Amino acid sequence: MRLLILISIIISILSSCSTLDKSRMLKTPTNYKFKQFVDSVNYKKPYRIAVDDQISIQMFSNDGYGFVGVGNQRGGQGGQGQGSQGQGGLGFGYKVRSDSTIKIPMVGKVKVVGLTLNEIETKFEKILESQVNSPFVIAQIFNRRIYIFQGGYSASVFQLQNENTTLFEVLAQVGGVYNEGNASRIKIIRGDLKKPDIYKINLSTIDGMKQADLSMQAGDIIYIDPFINYGNRISRDIGSTLGFLSSLLLVYTLVQQP
User: Residue 30 is part of which domain span?
Assistant: First the structure.
């Protein structure tokens, strides 16, 4: 019986090691070469519009003193305007079509894919010059999202409101790094998911603050590796096994009694 118990404990330890960390995602090989950070000026790139983005266009005359009416059509597929209250006045939201354009009353179709918000504002101001006195345009984007995974414990979608939102700001908004997270292993996955750029950030020290100044981009994935206490997990599994064996031993003893 003692031998049986010893064998069971050994099997429990081995099985615990094989099942630990099964919920962990996005593992990298031991010697994986992460993307190196460059000067902040180089990686704080403005976002460029893509198909299916939602853009708010606010058009004014007289350098911003008079609102230019663009109709009162509400949302829908294909770039119809949807009223929305934005910075500086009433704006209208438009979905970027598959042909890279948005369609706006008074203006018609305008190609916007690949442009930054500043470039869109300049483009619309030039288009309106023949129709409006001293046109002034404000462009905003609604659906810039990033994805945050706190190990295997939680996940959330974060809407980027500002052009240069940093990693620190995002972490502050979601409550920081959870107790189960490893602040020394924060991965930023960026770009084409078939061949992404992966950065590793260590926020467990003050030196990591320089890396946390990284501006987030739409589509970024923030993955915080879990901190795994192997000792506690193995002890818990062994305790469960011993409890099961104790029950078996009790049943065996009762059966053997005359």
Answer: 21-45+144-227
User: Both tokens of residue 13?
Assistant: 């330890």
Q: What's the pLDDT tens digit per position in 191-222?
A: 888 888 898 888 888 877 777 777 888 889 99
Tell me which of 119, 141, 163 is where a domain ends.
141
Query: Are 213 and 198 contained in the same domain?
Result: yes
CA 46 to chain centre: 17
End-to-end CA distance of the chain: 19
Last residue of a domain, one of 115, 141, 167: 141
Radius of gyration, CA atoms only, the chain: 28
Query: Structure pTM?
Result: 0.60
10/6 Cα distance (integer angstroms): 6
Q: In what order do the strands lie in the sheet with 145-150?
A: 154-159, 145-150, 221-226, 181-190, 197-201
Within a 10 A sphere around the Cβ of 74, how many other Cβ atoms? 11
What contacts 118, CB < 8 A, 6 or more positions away?
46
